């Protein structure tokens, strides 16, 4: 555990010694802030129309603001996270710092877990900063906190799956751009993989639905934490980490 | 301290090292000498547990590299060809990271870093970013990283590459200074480096050990017989004939590149016959200008080992 932390700590600090973390955090807050304001204005307008003219149907703050808010946070993170993960291992290979790690008395798995943890920590910091939106809601309204907590947990788990994908591709190449591009492509695929679910036979459709990360996220947004979804996310992460381990291990033998 | 037997590393299309056997005792400084691509770095990577061997076994500090890699890694400090430094870290932070990685306990951390910085004379740059340092300093940071956990075994892959002459001398002195309590293996293709630092040499060529011995003995062994150079004003063929008749002389030849030079080869078993040679030369009125023994330099040893002794 100490070794994992040593790796994670260095990597986490590295995000903040380059402008990268600041840029990504600013981007996230800027765009989600803009989206949040639009969501809130839209919600207010909708409710006012409903109250004055009794048109449309009433929407709860959860459905009207919180769920769309998490939807936009998730989408922005999908675009941002490859820039977080692409450097993880590719950079170590490029700078030839991997020999230091591989000749230190730590296991390969501890190294990989440390890398993974550092990216999860950065994402957690980013998510923590978006707490400003629920707080604004709390000040001016009366939001349900169940869906908010669920939304954060689901987002963290789902993005961690992306991070595992990114970690894997970062181990595949020493070129960060290639790692980033592959990561983005693969995660997008896992995002939309169930689009074809309707047009194929039911077994394949069910499988595609099951593999889609977003479909496992849905229940979190309603404030429900379903253990099978948690299990799916954790398994996804475990497979990603295992594959990363295999890639790096085979790299040593070549 | 280090024991390698039948060490072999094969890649898909070539054999990098082929059946290496060697031993390094505690406190020795051993130099791996060989041309580029001879297999020095590969051997070192295997010794450090960075890369597994295809065949053969290695024990370092009593542990088998393949069975207990973590114990071996704890007792080895390794400086790869390219110093494994993070450019965005300061020297001190980097050494802190390296020390933690190697399991230095929290209470000893500060002292360990201070000691490594002092040993490698990095005091004045310890707060600077490694990316802003010159290559020589980065090399020293790499060395400090190898030293920070105070390992009994040091494996240094071309430790003085890219340093200026003053720094080279400093690093060599440092390595020599470390040797009393540590075992050091260093690789190089620069010969004076071996002469300056090592107590023993292992010469590697094309993945095989072509020689391993102390420097003096290696030089002596290869100096089969002795060659003397005689500089004369008058190199008549008659005089050379007389020289040839001295017992114990193998050959007398006129050096083609200089009209004044005569090379005389003496049989190895011959007792010192320098007096006789000079006496004869004076008697023959050759007009002796200079007389000196040709000494086989390490360069020659190296070239002989790596070019002519292909069959070893």
List keywords for this structure.
heterodimer, A: mainly alpha, 81% helix, B: 312 residues, alpha/beta, Alpha-Beta Plaits, 2 domains, 6-stranded mixed sheet, 4-stranded antiparallel sheet, 11 helices, elongated, disordered C terminus
Q: What's the main sheet of chain A like?
A: none
Kindly report the greatest chain-chain contact and the residue count on each side: A-B, 25 and 29 residues
Our count of helices of chain A gives: 12
* SSE run of chain B: EEEHEEHEHHHEHEHEEHEHEEHEH
SSE blueprint:
The complex is a heterodimer of chains A (254) and B (312).
Chain A: H1 2-17, H2 20-53, H3 61-85, H4 90-94, H5 98-102, H6 108-129, H7 132-140, H8 145-172, H9 176-192, H10 202-211, H11 213-221, H12 227-253
Helix pairs in contact in A: 1-6, 2-3, 3-8, 3-9, 6-8, 6-12, 8-9, 8-11, 8-12, 11-12
Chain B: E1 2-10, E2 15-24, E3 29-33, H1 40-47, E4 55-60, E5 63-64, H2 69-75, E6 76-79, H3 91-101, H4 106-119, H5 135-147, E7 153-157, H6 165-179, E8 183-188, H7 191-197, E9 200-205, E10 208-214, H8 215-222, E11 226-232, H9 237-244, E12 249-254, E13 261-266, H10 274-283, E14 288-294, H11 298-308
Parallel strand pairs in B: 3-8, 3-9, 6-7, 7-8
Antiparallel strand pairs in B: 1-2, 1-4, 4-5, 9-10, 11-13, 11-14, 12-13
Task: Provide an overview of this structure.
Chain A is mainly alpha-helical and 254 residues long. Chain A has one domain (2-253). Chain A has helices at residues 2-17, 20-53, 61-85, 90-94, 98-102, 108-129, 132-140, 145-172, 176-192, 202-211, 213-221, 227-253. Chain B is α/β, with parallel strands linked by helices and 312 residues long. Chain B folds into two domains: 2-221, 3-Layer(aba) Sandwich (Rossmann fold); 224-295, Alpha-Beta Plaits. In chain B, the strands form three sheets. A six-stranded mixed beta sheet of chain B has the order 6-7-8-3-9-10, with helices on both faces. In chain B, a hairpin with a 2-residue loop joins strand 9 and strand 10. In chain B, helix 3 packs across helix 4 (106-119).
């Amino acid at each position: 555990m100490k070794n994992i932390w040593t790796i994670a700590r260095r990597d986490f600090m590295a995000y903040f010694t380059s402008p990268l973390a600041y840029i990504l955090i600013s981007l996230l807050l800027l765009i989600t802030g803009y989206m949040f304001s639009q969501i809130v204005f839209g919600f207010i307008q909708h409710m006012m129309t409903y109250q004055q003219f009794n048109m449309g149907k009433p929407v709860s703050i959860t459905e009207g603001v919180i769920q769309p808010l998490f939807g936009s946070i998730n989408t922005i993170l999908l675009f941002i996270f490859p820039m977080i993960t692409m450097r993880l291992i590719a950079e170590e290979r490029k700078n030839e710092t991997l020999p230091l790690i591989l000749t230190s008395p730590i296991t390969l798995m501890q190294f990989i877990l440390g890398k993974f943890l550092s990216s999860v920590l950065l994402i957690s910091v980013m998510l923590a900063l978006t707490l400003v939106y629920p707080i604004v809601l709390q000040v001016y309204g009366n939001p349900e906190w169940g869906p908010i907590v669920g939304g954060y947990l689901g987002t963290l788990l789902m993005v961690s799956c992306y991070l595992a994908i990114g970690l894997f591709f970062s181990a595949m190449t020493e070129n960060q751009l290639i790692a980033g591009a592959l990561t983005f492509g693969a995660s997008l695929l896992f995002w939309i993989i169930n689009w074809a679910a309707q047009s194929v036979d039911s077994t394949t459709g069910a499988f595609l639905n099951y593999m889609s990360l977003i479909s496992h996220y849905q229940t979190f947004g309603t404030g429900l934490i379903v253990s099978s979804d948690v299990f799916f996310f954790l398994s996804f992460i475990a497979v990603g980490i295992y594959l990363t381990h295999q890639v790096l291990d085979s790299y040593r033998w070549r | 301290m280090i024991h390698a037997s039948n060490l072999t590393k094969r890649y898909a299309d070539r054999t990098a090292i082929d059946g290496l056997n060697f031993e390094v005792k505690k406190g020795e400084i051993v130099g791996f000498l060989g041309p580029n691509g001879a297999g020095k770095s590969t051997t070192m990577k295997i010794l450090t547990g960075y890369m597994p061997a295809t065949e053969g076994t290695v024990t370092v500090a009593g542990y088998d590299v393949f069975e207990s890699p973590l114990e071996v890694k704890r007792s080895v400090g390794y400086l790869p060809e390219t110093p494994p430094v993070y450019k965005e870290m300061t020297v001190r932070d980097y050494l802190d990271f390296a020390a933690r990685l190697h399991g230095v306990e929290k209470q000893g951390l500060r002292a360990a870093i201070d000691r490594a910085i002092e040993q490698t004379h990095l005091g004045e740059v310890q707060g600077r970013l490694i990316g802003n340092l010159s290559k020589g300093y980065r090399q020293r940071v790499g060395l400090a990283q190898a030293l920070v956990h105070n390992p009994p075994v040091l494996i240094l892959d071309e430790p003085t590459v890219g340093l200026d002459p003053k720094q080279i001398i400093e690093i060599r002195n440092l390595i020599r200074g470390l040797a009393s309590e540590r075992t050091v293996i260093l690789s190089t293709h620069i010969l004076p480096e071996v002469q300056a630092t090592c107590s023993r040499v292992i010469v590697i060529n094309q993945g095989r050990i072509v020689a391993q011995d102390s420097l003096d003995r290696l030089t002596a062994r290869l100096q089969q017989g002795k060659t003397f150079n005689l500089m004369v004003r008058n190199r008549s063929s008659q005089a050379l004939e007389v020289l040839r008749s001295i017992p114990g002389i193998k050959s007398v030849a006129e050096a083609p590149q200089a009209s004044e030079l005569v090379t005389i080869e003496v049989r190895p078993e011959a007792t010192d016959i320098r007096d006789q040679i000079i006496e004869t030369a004076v008697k023959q009125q050759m007009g002796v200008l200079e007389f000196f023994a040709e000494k086989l330099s390490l360069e020659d040893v190296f070239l002989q080992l790596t070019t002519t002794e292909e069959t070893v």
